[in-house]
Specification:
It is built from eight helices and 19 strands. The longest helix is centred in the last third of the chain and has 17 residues, at 287-303. The protein has 323 residues and is α+β, with helices and mostly antiparallel strands. The strands form four sheets. Strands 3, 4, 11, 12, 13, 14 and 15 form a seven-stranded mixed beta sheet that branches. A five-stranded mixed beta sheet has the order 2-8-18-10-16, with no helix packed on it. Strands 7-19-9-17 form a four-stranded antiparallel beta sheet.
Amino acid sequence: RRWSLDVMAAAMGAQLITVNVTPDGRGDAVVCGRFVKPEERRMTFAQFAAALREREGGLQGSRGTLKELLLKKGVHYLSLQDDNLRTEHPQLASDVPSSVTWFEEALGCAPDAVNLWVGDERAMSAVHADHYENLYCVISGEKVFTLLPPADAISRDLAPRPVGRFAQRTDGAWEVCDEEAPSGGVVGADGDTAGLGGGLGGGDGGGLAGGLGGGDGGELGGSFVEWIGIDPAEPEQLPALSGAVTVRVGAGEMLYLPANWFHRVTQSAQTVAVNYWHDPLQSAVPPGQILAQFARKVHRALHGHGSRDRQADAGTADSKLIS
């Protein structure tokens, strides 16, 4: 009840926030062969809540035809990342811990970012990987994760995709516009603004955050992003030997997602969640050793510090020096 849409809107007042809007819920995803970012809109939380309640927006369970796609009002998803809870929603930040104590102690560092996520089953984060240790906490609703290890066969689909961004015209139709390069030049395969129905070709699906940096990482020369075009939630799209696993995280539950693991995320209903991004564990240590050491630190953080565990960690450090 503390974080219902109405309560959150009242707490935020007239302050403007950034909301991602797409025609069908897919942002930072491969659409018609291009890596397409969501349209970013500034609005109050109350305006966002009203848009979220409009169930006629977006496509539910079906991609539909391009004509249907163009006629939709759009799916609103509060998913800016980049520490948005503390930077854009300070009135709400005091309602949750600044960090999860046992997780911070286990990793040895404070969170680099704390993010707020609010959306419903129409919104989907396409498959990607983040270069952060991620602790995902669901406050209300349910998150549905499709998880794949870093070396999963799905990574073979990683390929450069021309970059675009969704934009809704004044007549309500959606189009994909070329994204500008950092130098100010126009990027994209054809150099022109292209509509969803024209000249884009290809299929659609999810993506991998290129360079494992999350967000807009992985851009190649400003005009392409390395991204995956497979949706792991569609079994027929998965390559043989893929190890995709579905995990449901309900209200009051947390999921630890190690750095560089692929994940596709959606919601089964309207959901509010907060996640904590921490700098990754040292990549110079073999992965199995990292996880074993991390498990010991979590145990100590939860149950106290034992000399045997400290000696075990000392042995780990010694082996690291001579390996």
